[in-house]
Amino acid sequence: MLGADVHFEPFLHLADLSADEALIAWGGFWFHRESAGDRWHIVDDEELSEAAGVPRTESIGARSESFGHAVVEVERDGEVVVRVESADHNFVRVTGLEPDTAYSYRVFVDGEPWAEGELWDWDIDRATLVSAGRTYDNRFRTFPAPGERVPVTFAVLGDFGIGIYEQGEDGERQLRLGRALERAASGHEVRVVLTTGDNIYHGDEGTVSGTGDEDDDWYPCFYQPYRYLLNRIPFFPTVGNHDTSDTENSDDRAQLDDNFFLEHRFRSWVEAGRASLDPGLFYRFGLGGMVEFVCIDTSLADELDVEHYFDNAEHLEWVRETLRRDGGDGQAPRWQIPFSHHPPYCAGPHHDSTHGMVERLVPLFQEAGVSLVLSGHEHNFQHSTVDGIHYVISGAAGKLQTEPPTAFEFAGTRAWASAGHFLIVEADEERIRVHPVGEVGDDGSLEPIELSDPEGGVVETPLVVH
User: Fold this and answer.
1) d(CA 336, CA 192)
2) Domain contains 121
3) Residue 343 falls within a domain, yes or no?
4) What is the C-alpha to C-alpha distance for residues 447 and 35, in angstroms, rounded to an integer?
5) pLDDT of residue 34
6) DSSP string covering 63-114, please?
7) Range with the lowest mean pLDDT among 54-63, 87-96, 328-337?
8) Which domain holds residue 266?
9) To pair with 45 at 20 to 30 A between CA atoms, which of 247, 328, 425, 433?
10) Within a domain: residue 402?
11) What is the C-alpha to C-alpha distance for residues 173 and 179, in angstroms, rounded to an integer?
């Protein structure tokens, strides 16, 4: 039994989704209250056993110790169509679903509903946990069947994991954009969220955000800012320099695996040629037959005798063969979109173009007829075209680089903006429309960010790729 000065906040997570399966997970975080006052603080992973009253090292993610015997019920049109149980893990894989179909779900642990009723969220202004006046809406829509070329919409979120504790304007920005993304997802039927890396940052010295190598670090950087998205829309990540030891003194890949369920999602794909791992993160997945996404790990490969993970012979061959493929069923996807953290072409001002990508990956993109490449890393928005391929940098969902870019010519820059944002991308048979979205206006509408060309002229949105 929890005491008056200890609070457990439950979470739900739609960790994976396809045309016929879903990976549904649950977990949560413990908080303790100051001895004097009403402020709540998250319990560090090292203190979980004391707070929980039982031995425990983790509270959320694939590795977390079981909370008890769980039952997950998935409903369609008010009728339970699948019921799955687990006593060993805080997640289940639900199979036998129908493509492009709306479902709802409930989770019970030891006979009690998990995360039902009013939730508590972090109040960034008061720097404490407060009653949110909100409840979960646990629903999802499966992907279109493979080969079905129906229009789809997806979101892109880059360099977002700064955290909402003590990060000032950066944290405020992440929270605002998280709320805007939630509104966009509901209004535009967003099917997935792609991340362009830096999913969790090394917090400033002295802050509570930490490095990202513990579950409690992920609360302010991932679970809370996107809470009301994570329970109904899957996130598909790529690895950024802040997610590894490239930039920090901590390599967060183990926690990335844990909280994005990478082993449970992509390990079985290796034999089928849909992923290349160990080490590195390369995988592909489709939204019906309209779009196939290709995740490319561009981080530095310290443990290998190469510069980047994509330079590894097996990984590079996987990328080459993946970009040549026809969809596996004799029908090629209409659009094949590589996404990574580092950009091939970048006008700065803080980061240069990634010359290893220009030399060794861009020729593969050209050979395969790729039209659009997505990336992050630079904390602004950039749109470039080089030899007919559109390159879009979206890396300002947390931190923001306010200085203007300068290397426009080499990067082929057509538009840029120094503004916090995410992308809403619509793909149909004829074109792809890229909407760089800022915040929610006073009237509740989504506001696009203002784009400029290198000469300072106004660039209209959405950006269109043919």
Assistant:
1) 15
2) yes
3) yes
4) 43
5) 82
6) TSPP-S-EEEEEEETTEEEEEEEESS-SEEEE--PPTT-EEEEEEEETTEES
7) 328-337
8) 144-465
9) 247
10) yes
11) 10
